[in-house]
TRAP transporter small permease protein
Amino acid sequence: MPRWSVAFVRIVDRMNYGVGRFAMYLLFVLMGILMWSTISKVAFTPSYWTLEMAQFAMVAYYILGGPYSMQLASHVRMDLAYAKWSARKRAWVDAFTIFALIVYLGVMLWGALDSLGYSLGLTWEGGVPQIGRLERSPTAWRPYMWPIKSILCVGFLLMLLQSIAYFIRDIATLRGAPIPGGDI
């Protein structure tokens, strides 16, 4: 395999490993938010922000942890026939399914970027982007939506890059020069 492709796979693996390890700690943030919500409901006036903030923390945990989970091959998989196949046959099937996943993630990233642009009030006037009124949640707390939509964009991009890395890894296996790693 070309050196650039091996370098790309290694860089993406390293980056998603770091982001995934960070995302694991978001579970503790979520627990803290839910603990505060419980205490505030019992001891004094409930906080408006806890429900939405817990949802935002869970979305960040899930979206940023997805590429790391893919890297560790810990997604749910039906191994009834897959485990018995040769490495080459698994690479063919994986390359096909990863290609479909890349197309799907491309569409999701496009939609996430469009939604982020909307939340920033982005309009194009005379070929120049203009930022207008920022989108806010319609709840009582009314947080700005662009931070969580930015996290969605980053998460979809990281998942897309990890999928491309796996596609390159499958092609390398089919060519008889597998790229080691993936399960850091």
The helical segments are 3-24, 26-43, 49-71, 87-119, 146-174. Residues 6 and 14 are 12 Å apart (CA to CA). The first helix runs from residue 3 to 24. Residues 3-72+85-174 form one domain.
